Amino acid sequence: MASMEHPVFSISTKPDRRVRRYESGADFIEITPSVKGLATVHDRDVLIFCISQLMAALNQGREMSPTVRFKAFDMLTATNRPTGGESYQRLREALERLSGTRIMTNITTGDVEVLDGFGLIDKFRIVRETRDGRMQDVEITLSDWVFNAIRHKEVLTLHRNYFRLRKPLERRIYEIARKHCGQQSSWKISLARLREKCGSNSTDKEFRRLVTKIVREDESHAHMPDYSMRLDGETDQLVFTRRRPVIEAIPNWVSKISLDPDTYEEAREAAPGWDVYVLEQEWREWLANSGKERPRKPDFAFIRFCAKRYEREGRP
Description:
By secondary structure, this protein is an alpha+beta fold. It has twelve helices and ten strands. It is globular, with a radius of gyration of 20 Å. The mean pLDDT is 87.
């Protein structure tokens, strides 16, 4: 949530080597890029993917570690990216920027205030790589700041269509709305404040033009997840309105269902190309809202849920 509140990630399409400092009341955060530039909003996909796996483990009562190992292909497909050779190179560059970006802040995560400089990830390792240059397994060690936030559930879910937003500014605007509007029916922010929270280097005039274009596209296609937007010319504010009603909390018995680790592999076979952790969340929400009792065989029920999704929709 801290990285949704503050402009930790760059929205520039070119290498951003500016040192930035953001203050909000008594809190501050200072981000220093490496020579390869600041980690971008799109680089953040790697962190989101890692967090989703760790949160699944936490919710099921399994042990967690700040070191996460995953298949590069799974990460690319889960975040709506192509799986050609160029995408693997971009993933490598994202890991380098995430590792090189350094943070100094007094913002606590998990009631721990870290005053030393640290990175978003401590280190990464490409465990195996094919001869044609495509990485297979990736191992990432998250920083204490990020891991503390996960352990204390200081995270928010994102709509799956977040990964379909290609413009960095669109993604950043959605993140801010998700953090501040959340489950409220509406929320608004001045364009000047929004520009600051986005970490935009554009002029006020150019930023207004970019936001206006996104608002008009959303009015035509409703492509922004969760929230609709409109510009209030009189107050110079961007107004967000929640598209759907508030989701009720998942009952305790649903969140306590524990799946066997092998179940996730079987789920991947049942629904090739799908992010099984996203499907798991949808399955739990379906259980909560279906009025059905706890399944006798949860693992079988989840795999069947995944198979039906694939049968109905094919690859994502």
